[in-house]
Design goal:
The chain is an alpha+beta fold. Among the domains are: 41-231, no CATH class; 567-602. It is 29% helix and 43% strand. The protein has helices spanning 2-5, 9-51, 83-91, 114-120, 154-158, 265-271, 291-297, 332-338, 387-392, 440-447, 494-504, 532-547, 552-557, 564-601; strands at 56-59, 62-66, 71-81, 98-112, 122-131, 134-139, 164-181, 188-204, 218-231, 237-247, 252-262, 276-287, 300-315, 344-362, 367-384, 395-404, 408-417, 425-431, 434-435, 449-465, 469-485, 519-525. It has a 22-stranded mixed β-sheet that branches. α11 packs across α14 (564-601). This is DUF748 domain-containing protein.
Amino acid sequence: MSKSFFKFKWQKILFITAGALLVLALVAAVCINSFLAPKLSDKLKEAVLKGTDSLYNINFNSIDLDVLQGRAVLYGIVFKPDTAVYNKLKKSDIAPPKLYALHADRLLVSDVHLLTFYFKNKLNIGHIAINTPRVVISTYAGRDTVQKKDKRTLYQKIAKTFKEVRVGEIVVTNINYKEKDYTGPKPSGAELKEMDVKATDFLIDAASQTDTSRFLYCRDVSIAIKNYSSTSADGLYSLKVKSVKLSTQTKKLTAAGLYLTPADVKTFFAKSKSDRFMLHLQSIVLNNFDYNIYRQSQSVDIKKMVIDSGAFEVTSNYNGILPTTDRLVTFPNWAIRNTLPTPLNIDTLDLQHVNFVYTELNKKPNKFGHLKFSNISGRMRNLTNRKELLKQNNRATANITSYFMGKAKLDVQFIFNLADANYSYAYKGRLAPMNMADVNPVLMPLSLVKITSGRVKSFNFDVNSTQKVSKGTVSLLYKDLYVDVLRPDYSKNTLLSTLANTVVLKHDNPDDGSKTPRLANVVYIRPANFPFFKTVWFVLLNGIKSCAGIGPAQQKKLTLQTDPADKKEQEKIIRKAVKDKEKADEEYKKKLKEKLQKNKKG
C-alpha cells in the first residue's frame, strides 16, 4: 500500500521527516509550557511584590499555558495585602489609607508574546478577561496626609523585572465590588453587584509613567454599573439607579433611571421631623467630568451637567418645629456651601422637562395642598463652594421656565449669594394670563378659600431676601374675582363668603374706572421653621392678598366669631354691605346705560 501511496522514495523520506519534526515540536511545546509556566508564575509574583513594596502578594492554584496560541489561563487567583507588612507600616506611621483585595476563580490571558517576555523582559498581552471577580476596598482613618518614603513610580519599581508591560484590552465583567470604611465611629460600607469595566491600551514603560492623559496607565477606562440599589440607615429612603456609565477618556458620566423613594407619608412623618423628598430623574449627563482629579483630590469639577426628564417632590414636615428650629438648611445657597463634603464646581446645569410639586398639610381640614410647576426647563450657572472661585464670582444664577399648576407659563430668575453670611438671594418673574380657579388645589386646603371665578391678566414680582427678611413688590392684575369661604369639610360658609365678596375682596385690579392698578410692597419676616419653598410661596401669597384688597383688618373680618352678639353685629355689617353693593351696582348700570345711549346717538 505504501508503494501505491509514495510513488517516489523522496516522498516517503519527506513524510517521515515531517512527522518526526511535528512530534518533536509537540514535545518541545509541552516542555516549553511546563518550563515557562512556573517561570511566568514566579515573574508575576515577583513583580507584584516589588511593585507594592511587599505589601501585596498574588497567588493562584494553577496555570494552563499554550505557547503555540500565546494563551494562558490562571485559576484560583488571590490578590491581597500582607497584614504583617501592613501592621509594620502602621507602627512606622507610613501605612496607606486604603487596602485592596481581589479574588477570582478564572483569568484568561490571550495573545501573549511569550518569547518577547522570556528573552526581552517585555510583557505584551493582547487580551485579558476576568469574569465575576470579588473586589474589596477598605479605608482607614488618619492616613490621607501620610507621605510614603518611596517616591519611585510603578515603572521604576518593576523596571528590573519588566522593561515594559502592555495589555491591549482588559475586560472585567459582573464585578462584586465592596467598600468598607473604618474611619467613623462605626464601620460602614457600600456594595455594587453588577459592574463591568473595560480598559484599553494599558501600558507601563518609561514614557507612560509621566503621561497625564492616561488613567491608571490606561488610555481609557470605561465603567458600567447596572441595577444599583441601597437603603438609608434609618430605612426611610431607598435609592435605585438603573445604570451608570463613565469613560475616563471622554470625561463623560451618564446615569439613567435614578429613583430616590421615601417611605409612605404616614410612616415617614411618624419617624422623622425632616421634610420628605421624592426624586426621579430619567437621565443625568456630566460633561468634562475629570475622574482623575476627583480620585486625587476628591474635587468635583464639571463643565456642563444636563438633567433630562424627571420629577422632584417636597412634602413639608407637619410634626411641628424641628429640634434645630431654623430651616435654613433647606436654602439652596446654604446647601451648596455647607452640605457637600467635597469641593464642587458646576459651571452650567441645564434642566429639561422636570416637574416639581410642593405639598403641605393643613391640620384643620386635615388635607394636603399641592403647589405644582410642570415641564420645568432652565439653566443654572456657577454652582460652586470652592473659595478661590467664589472670590472671582460669588453669585449663582438660575433662569427657569415652567407652567404654574400645569396651566400658565411662569418665567423666574433667581440669584443666590454663595458667600454672604446672611444667605441673601433675590428672585423676580412673570406669570402669563390664567384662570384663577386653577390655583384651588393649593388654595382650598391651605386657606379654606375656593375661587369661583376670576382671571389673571398678569402677575409680576421682584423680591430681595435674606435668611430672615424678604422685601419686594408684587403686581397682580385680574378681573371678576369671586370666592367661597369654606368650612373644614369644604362646605360653603355662606355668611363669610358674602362678607368676603361684598366687603373684603376687590373684584378687579385695576378697579372699574381706574387706570392705576394696586401694587403690593411686601415686607415678610420669615418664621425660623419655614423652609425655602414655603418662604417664597408665603411672600408671594401676601403680595397677592394685598393686591386683592385683603389686609390684616380685612382678614379679621373673615374670622367667624362664636359669641352670638358678635354674630348679630357681623350680620348687620353684611346687610349694610350688601345694600351698598346693590346700590353701587345700580349706579354703575345706570351710568353704563347712559353711556351706551350717547354712543348710539353719536
